[in-house]
């Protein structure tokens, strides 16, 4: 049964503390990374056989396999994928940045360039829940950014094939190469490169605790998007909300995995009680009942506050991955929401809308990191370089100022690198 707690009557740590995963996988991941770094494809093929039960001759997904998968998918689903891709492209094109240049007196030029990364690695989960939506969400922004090569990794099924929906999405999104490998070993391959899999500059995409830990350990060798934790939803709702809708939205996250978190914050005790009953009723109908049951019992919460001001304060302190404003006038509160990965406004914007179709990204900060992190975007696939040009006259005008600054920091060679040019005839 989901816990119901009242602000002021419950210890703050019970309201705001999120129990971390109990399994420490850092040593196991470190061993996998080292093995792949030292043994390349040989290690990868052994891990695929061990963890996925597939004995492969080649890690690369062939063009024939992609075409076969695409043709095997239902035409209606292909149309849905294309519609979603169009929405994602339209949303993310607005994020494109251009460089700029400032021209000052005496020939001074300052500027900034925006440069796409050369190679990006896209990790796509393919186990219990093969996330074809993640293919679109992570590949399309990379394409828009101008990434030259997009390398996708995803675990194969026991028959050695990749889920057909994932391959169909990859074809539509424009992934350049796809490899049959998942888990920490896939992250290792992207970070270090193997005989088959190229080293990339950036790795993005959600995954298991092993994938998250692997991304953490290879950061610095490559760039990563974020360390994604278990999925989260927080629903802000008042007495006008429909209990069955709120319960359904909370369960949409609870079914992700046993560590997922579903939270309702409300100023209505009546709604809290009704939602609790609805969760129990709807849970019994879920194919993934066992997963959702553990999530709700261990990480689910209904928090009752005195008023909407307290409700919003709680939401901002929790800083959830997904935040739903299930109220009559959601735009009245939008500016007051400071910390959330993605915000869903009103009673007809369920979190699943953002997961699949609307166009906003679903790779989002978790575990309270929405206080300082952002959703995956085109920005994740570019880096910036600055440039500076001074004429002799312009430098000599400020040489003494720069030298003074350098001497204050006791860096005389810095000062000398400027003043030596004052001696030029």
Could you walk me through the main structural features you see in this protein, from its secondary elements to its overall organization?
- With 425 residues, the chain is of the alpha/beta class.
- It contains 15 helices and 14 strands.
- The longest helix has 27 residues, at 26-52.
- It starts with a strand and ends in a 6-residue tail after the last helix.
- The relative contact order is 0.14.
- The mean pLDDT is 95.
Q: How many strand units?
A: 14
* Structural shape: globular
End-to-end CA span: 84 Å
What percentage of the residues does DSSP assign to strands (E)? 15-25%
Q: Whole-number radius of gyration?
A: 25 Å
Largest sheet: 6 strands, parallel
Instruction: Count the DSSP helices.
Output: 15
Order of helices and strands: EHHHHEEEHEHEHEHEEHEHHEHEEHEHH
Major β-sheet strand ordering: 1-11-10-9-12-13
Which segments are poorly predicted (pLDDT under 50) over 5 or more consecutive residues? none
Distinctive features:
15 helices; 425 residues; 44% helix; 6-stranded parallel β-sheet; alpha/beta; 5-stranded parallel β-sheet
How do the helices and strands line up, and which of them pair or pack?
Blueprint (H helix, E strand, L loop, with lengths): L2 E4 L5 H5 L9 H27 L10 H10 L2 H19 L6 E4 L5 E8 L2 E5 L8 H14 L3 E6 L9 H10 L3 E4 L2 H10 L9 E3 L4 H10 L4 E2 L7 E6 L5 H12 L6 E6 L2 H15 L5 H11 L1 E4 L3 H11 L3 E5 L15 E4 L5 H6 L25 E8 L2 H17 L3 H8 L6
Parallel strand pairs: 1-11, 4-5, 4-7, 5-6, 7-8, 9-10, 9-12, 10-11, 12-13
Antiparallel strand pairs: 2-3, 3-14
